[in-house]
Amino acid sequence: MIRERLAEIIRREPDLLVCAEAEDRVSALAAAATTAPNLAIVDLTLKNSHGLDLIKDLQMQDPDLGILVVSMHDESLHAERVVRAGARGYITKQEATRNILQAIRVVLDGGVYLSEKMAIKVAAKVAARPARRSPWSLDKLTDRELQVFELIGEGFNTRQIAGKLRLGIPTVDTYRGRIKDKLHLRDASELLQHAIRWNQLGGPPK
Question: Which candidate, 21, 46, 124, 130, has a CA 20 to 30 Å from the CA of 155?
Answer without folding.
Answer: 21
